[in-house]
């Protein structure tokens, strides 16, 4: 809710209080959550109205919001419980214990047991801690003092305990000022206006005695049947001096001044759209000299009341088209003949994309061409008739030296970027790509696979969140917006920046250029829910509005440009799909049917001037534009993410939708299916066929693509349109991988055969589906139950994948054979860490799960946070840097003991219960990069940025062993080592007999026997991979041969040995004198000695 809307609530609260609507006052306080009335709260507590106390509190906080809230509810329920015991009403006490107090057992089981034992006492005061409990009145007084302290300390009540200072009857005053303003604008103002209603704008009668249709009154008495009334209008008087001329203003969006019709003034906020659809700017004329009145301007008057510079522009025109359009003549339906059967609801094909779809756009002329951008930065054009990817570009900065230092620094740390938006120009000869890192690309498209670099620009500092083409002044421009809170307008032909529009206070989320007659303008929306409108100049925004629900919003017009819609989702997961009344700048229609708590931002589109569609709740939902209620919904035969990306073609006959397995489904109606059949039957010319034959696929790493069908070997999968290529982007055949013997100076009986894995077919692997923003994976862990994976990204946001128990996965545990689900609670909130003053990209994140998977401790360079894994809510934060925590691990036998690796290279053994550091372990020279407890060996293994592994006894907390890891002999250092330090990460296998370790600079995964630090097997490495590489590694808690990797592109892969292998590593050859492979190195040695 905007600040003005919030202030309006306070004005209403003041009015209700003055009019003695006491119950309504407190109900509004609770429902709005803006003002916590401590006096009213004290009265309820003193009177023991416990149900009303909790009901009132529920408007401001819930039990599990934070530790303060939990303590507040606990004290109230405990007091209610003790009072029932004091009255000897044991049945009531038991009811309170079961219904109200049991919820706290999960947080402090011992305390709950102690409370339960009070039932066994004749008098609960026999309990030592309650021996000083007095009578009910004094006990409530003591508790009330404690509650007030907790409420004042609770951050959720911040700025809600003081009512703003207002003059008496402030709302009445504003209404009278509005009436004065309306009266001042009357064409023939009367000296004593007869005001009878507030429901319509005031207008004085005509000179001939005819009455205006909306009579208004000067006396507001009786408007509310209570004492007090409004002050008379003369008190604020239309009969006081006023400036002779009225400043120009933007009231609504459309309308030119007219000599015959006077524009009406609205008492509401400035509008978004026109009274007259034929124009955009409305300028109230100067009132007559004999019409005296007061110019009541708001605090924003100077910003808003600017005379816009008119444009002498013709209607929007299209440039010549050099592409022969593919057309299909369908029936010409009248608007009233549309039905839900006209919607494209039938799946006709699936396009194997390979990475998560971020944005799509159909070609405006050739409607079977689909432009797609992905989270890997890839951009491609699909031809739906042939189901081929006919053109493709991966993310690459064309001229890095010419780019900004900020972009160069960002790419030096992580040479990846996600596509945020792709869009065709109106004639389809160009298309633009907005990336997550600073830049925008514009490509020229000449048909077939002919894509050429056109313009590369440092568009914004940070994310370029959106772009759109427009034609102001017959000049093709591209409008962009970004995290730097600006909107910029660029010449799309030469790349010159034409305008820099500044005024948003938060990152700008989307832009929507449009025109009405000869006036061109731009809508922009920001992540704080603000909507602004701009002309093509540098004089500031013309309108400042709030999106419904204060959401990140996208705006779009119907195809004929006459109706404006928006759809957005706020941080709480509330989504709003609305139509705007452009005349009044208010919501005209709110469409029902979106989820109360959406996962991700809901995306929508319009078609045929008749229908709306949105991706929500793993479905596609459709609305008739003229009906608030949901028309229909489809799941497209399943496989959709929670908030899929959707896009109609121009005629609305085809609909593209993203899927969970990183593919695209194409849906069609009957006209769309005929269009595709017509295209499929066409004969392609020789040049077109030749160009399609040489289309190259994007570089595919050694890890399988995200949309890979799960199986024992990915070689068995259906190949994409183009052959798989190596990590260095060449398409030469990959050589067979030959096993080699690790060169270690140990006795032959203890030498294991080292297997290098370079091919996906050498192990079973699975990439987890991800519909959220892709950011590099900073930390990764399996839950202790083994049924889920938790990841922490570089933007301090956590992601959780859960495997469901079903016929394909009877155990419900993590496996590389079944796709899991990216999970979020119904609230739609994300677990986000406190971030220090440093850049999140530079912070060292860490986290650890509690033994029962109910809580996660986490940090991203700032304070350590405690999250509830079921609700994703933050329970508390503690231990601010410096030094910052860089790794966390719970003790396997005692959840109160946490090992905290620090930035200063020490390891702190921290006791949560007593809030103190038990001991400090010192042995590393650089920051701690990993910690893992062995369940069976009673040791703690630590890894550091010094490339050292240390083993510590958990009994005496003494170092037992250490080893510096080095790059294996004979392997050259990858060029990647020039830009990435030799970080290592280590995790223990579930049986504690060996550890997985990773050297980032070499991108090498080693498995060590814990008995003697001998490399067991395998050595998984990918030195050819440049753009994407693993950063973190995690071991399954109960499957010792399963582990997961987190990559720089945000991808997460799960690895298992092939079923034929059963476990990592193979038996040593006979000539080495080794026996059969066993579970550990030590066991292997004993076998050989026999």
Automatic annotation (TrEMBL):
Biased composition (Low complexity): 1073-1090
UniProt keyword terms in alphabetical order: Repeat, Repressor, WD repeat
SUPFAM superfamilies from the UniProt entry: Quinoprotein alcohol dehydrogenase-like (SSF50998), WD40 repeat-like (SSF50978)
Residues covered by the CTLH domain: 34-92
Domain of life: Eukaryota
InterPro entries: CTLH_C (IPR006595), LisH (IPR006594), Quinoprotein_ADH-like_sf (IPR011047), Topless_fam (IPR027728), Topless_Znf (IPR048419), TPL_SMU1_LisH-like (IPR054532), TPR1-like_2nd (IPR054080), WD40/YVTN_repeat-like_dom_sf (IPR015943)
Region described as Disordered: spans on this chain: 206-233, 1058-1090
WD repeat copies, ranges: 457-491, 921-962
GO biological process, one term: primary shoot apical meristem specification
Keyword set includes Ubl conjugation: no
UniProt cross-references to Gene3D superfamilies, sorted A to Z: YVTN repeat-like/Quinoprotein amine dehydrogenase
UniProt name for this protein: CTLH domain-containing protein
């Amino acid at each position: 809710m905007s600040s003005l809307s919030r202030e309006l609530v306070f004005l209403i609260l003041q009015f209700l209080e003055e009019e003695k609507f006491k119950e309504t006052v407190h109900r509004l306080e609770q429902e709005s959550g803006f003002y916590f009335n401590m006096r009213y709260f004290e009265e309820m507590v003193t009177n023991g109205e416990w149900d009303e106390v909790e009901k009132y509190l529920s408007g401001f906080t819930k039990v599990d919001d934070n530790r303060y809230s939990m303590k507040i509810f606990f004290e109230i329920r405990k007091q209610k419980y003790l009072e029932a015991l004091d009255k000897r009403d044991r049945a009531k006490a038991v009811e309170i214990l079961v219904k109200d107090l049991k919820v706290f057992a999960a947080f402090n089981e011992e305390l709950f047991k102690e409370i339960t034992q009070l039932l066994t006492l004749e008098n609960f005061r026999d309990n030592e801690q309650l021996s000083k409990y007095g009578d009910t009145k004094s006990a409530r007084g003591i508790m009330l003092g404690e509650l007030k302290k907790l409420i004042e300390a609770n951050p959720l009540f911040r700025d809600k305990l003081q009512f703003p200072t207002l003059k008496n009857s402030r709302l009445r005053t504003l209404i009278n000022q509005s009436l004065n303003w309306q009266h001042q604008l009357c064409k023939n103002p009367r000296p004593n206006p007869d005001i009878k209603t507030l429901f319509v704008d005031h207008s004085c009668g005509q000179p001939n005695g005819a009455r205006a249709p909306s009579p208004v009154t000067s006396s507001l008495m009786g408007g509310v049947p209570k004492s007090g009334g409004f002050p008379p209008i003369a008190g604020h008087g239309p009969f006081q001096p006023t400036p002779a001329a009225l400043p120009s203003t933007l009231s609504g969006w459309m309308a030119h001044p007219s000599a015959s019709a006077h524009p009406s003034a609205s008492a509401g906020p400035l509008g978004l759209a026109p009274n007259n659809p034929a124009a955009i700017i409305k300028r109230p004329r100067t009132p007559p000299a004999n019409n005296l009145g007061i110019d009541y301007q708001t605090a924003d008057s100077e910003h808003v009341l600017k005379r816009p510079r008119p444009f002498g522009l013709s209607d929007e025109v299209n440039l010549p088209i050099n592409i022969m359009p593919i057309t299909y003549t369908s029936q010409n339906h009248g608007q009233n003949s549309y039905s839900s059967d006209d919607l494209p609801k039938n799946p006709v094909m699936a396009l194997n994309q390979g990475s998560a779809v971020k944005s799509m756009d159909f070609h405006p002329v050739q409607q079977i061409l689909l432009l797609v951008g992905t989270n890997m930065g890839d951009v491609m054009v699909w031809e739906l008739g042939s189901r081929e990817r006919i053109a493709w570009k991966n993310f690459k900065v064309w001229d890095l030296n010419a780019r900004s230092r900020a972009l160069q620094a960002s790419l030096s740390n992580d040479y990846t970027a996600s596509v945020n938006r792709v869009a065709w120009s109106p004639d389809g000869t160009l298309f633009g790509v907005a990336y997550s890192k600073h830049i925008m690309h514009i490509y020229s498209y000449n048909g077939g696979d002919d894509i050429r670099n056109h313009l590369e620009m440092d568009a914004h500092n940070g994310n370029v969140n959106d772009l759109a083409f427009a034609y102001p002044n017959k000049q093709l421009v591209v409008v962009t917006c970004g995290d730097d809170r600006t909107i910029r307008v660029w010449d799309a032909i030469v790349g010159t920046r034409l305008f820099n529009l500044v005024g948003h206070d938060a990152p700008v989320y989307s832009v929507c250029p449009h025109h009405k007659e000869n006036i061109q303008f731009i809508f922009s929306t920001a992540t704080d829910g603000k909507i602004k409108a701009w002309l093509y100049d540098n004089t500031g925004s013309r309108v400042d509005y709030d999106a419904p629900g204060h959401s990140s919003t996208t705006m779009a017009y119907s195809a004929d440009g006459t109706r404006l819609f928006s759809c957005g989702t706020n941080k709480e997961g509330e989504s709003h799909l609305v139509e705007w009344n452009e005349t009044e700048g208010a919501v005209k229609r709110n469409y029902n049917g979106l989820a109360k708590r959406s996962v991700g931002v809901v995306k929508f589109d319009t078609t045929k001037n008749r229908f709306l569609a949105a991706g929500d709740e793993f479905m596609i939902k459709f609305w008739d534009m003229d009906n608030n209620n949901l028309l229909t919904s489809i799941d497209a035969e399943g496989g959709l993410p929670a908030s899929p990306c959707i896009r109609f073609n121009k005629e609305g006959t085809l609909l593209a939708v993203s899927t969970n397995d990183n593919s695209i489904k194409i849906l069609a109606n009957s006209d769309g299916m005929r269009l595709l059949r017509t295209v499929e039957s066409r004969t392609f010319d020789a040049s077109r066929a030749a160009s399609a034959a040489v289309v190259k696929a994007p570089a595919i790493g050694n890890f399988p693509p995200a949309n890979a069908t799960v199986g024992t070997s990915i070689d068995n999968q259906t190949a994409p349109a183009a052959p798989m290529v190596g990590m260095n982007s060449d398409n030469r055949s990959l050589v067979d991988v030959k096993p080699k013997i690790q060169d270690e100076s140990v006795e032959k009986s203890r030498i294991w055969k080292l297997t290098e894995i370079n091919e996906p077919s050498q192990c079973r692997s699975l990439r987890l589906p991800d519909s959220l923003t892709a950011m590099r994976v900073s930390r990764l862990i399996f839950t202790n139950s083994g049924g889920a994976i938790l990841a922490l990204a570089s933007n301090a946001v956590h992601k959780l994948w859960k495997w469901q128990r079903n016929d394909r996965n009877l155990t419900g545990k993590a496996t590389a054979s079944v796709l899991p689900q990216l999970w979020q609670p119904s609230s739609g909130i994300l677990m986000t860490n406190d971030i220090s003053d440093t850049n999140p990209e530079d912070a060292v994140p860490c986290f650890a799960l509690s033994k029962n998977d109910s809580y996660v401790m986490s940090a991203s360079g700032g304070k350590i946070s405690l999250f509830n894994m079921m609700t994703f809510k933050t329970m508390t934060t503690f231990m601010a840097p410096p030094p910052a925590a860089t790794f966390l691990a719970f003790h396997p036998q005692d959840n109160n003991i946490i090992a905290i690796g620090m930035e200063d290279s020490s390891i702190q053994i921290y006791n949560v219960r007593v809030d103190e550091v038990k001991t400090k372990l010192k042995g590393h020279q650089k920051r701690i990069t990993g910690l893992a407890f062995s369940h069976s060996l009673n040791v703690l293994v630590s890894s550091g940025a010094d490339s050292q592994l240390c083993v510590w006894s958990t009994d005496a907390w003494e170092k037992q062993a250490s080893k510096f890891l080095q790059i294996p002999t004979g392997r050259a250092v990858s060029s990647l080592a020039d830009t990435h330090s030799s970080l290592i990460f280590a995790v223990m296998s579930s049986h504690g007999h060996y550890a997985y370790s990773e050297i980032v600079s070499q991108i090498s995964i080693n498995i060590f026997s814990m008995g003697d630090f001998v490399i067991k097997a395998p050595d998984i490495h990918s030195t050819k991979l440049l753009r994407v590489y693993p950063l973190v590694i995690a071991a399954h808690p109960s499957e010792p041969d399963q582990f997961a990797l987190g990559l720089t592109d945000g991808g997460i892969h799960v690895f298992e040995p092939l079923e034929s292998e059963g476990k990592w590593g193979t038996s040593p050859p006979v000539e080495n004198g080794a026996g059969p492979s066993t579970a550990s190195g030590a066991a292997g040695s004993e076998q050989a000695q026999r």
